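ugh ok fine here u go
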Amino acid sequence: MKLLVIEDNQAMQTTLQRSFERRGFQVSTCDDGERALSRWRASLPDVVLLDLSMPGRDGLDVLSEARAEGLNTPVIIITARGTLGDRILGLNIGADDYLPKPFDLDELEARVRALVRRRGSAAAPEEQRLAAPAFCGLRADPESGAVYLQGQVLDLAPREAALLRALLAKPGQAVAKERLFDLVFADASEALPDAIEVVAYRLRKKLAASGSSAKLATLRGLGYLLQADDSHG
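structure:
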């Protein structure tokens, strides 16, 4: 875990660096507000500990510019300026946490680790979305359920999208009609098994009209599969 300490008090900086290094962190330091942003960009930390009162540039200015640049690293403000106004201002500018001096090092470490865990949990859905497998330019978003072709949302009815998502999970492999029916009509107990054929027919037409090189093929006795159309454009 990488930590950037932006703190001009040398005694405090040294204490934090040694303490966190003993706890297994990689620690970078900066003691000047003017150099803080360049150090931030260069070190790519997991968490920033930011003092407010520094030579050259105030910590709130550093934080404001960092957020404006798109630097979204979690930030804990550590400062002797512990008034309610300073806390509110820091949090509104983009700080994730605020710990007034003096503080307990064990508490600070707990807050650092909590921020890293929280960021990891928030990032997971986005990472999963970006990692969703694509086939012939088609990609399903596991969060929204939408299906994209070359980055554009396909205009599909909900059951058509459900069928396409199921086939995209195993492109080039046949999926049994019974399995697809269970997925597509999970919320419709009155639907008949042959209803999946109607959905497949409509999806096949929409795929052909979309310009995608993927086509929906029927395998008698096996089900449906999504395959690349070698004759496409």
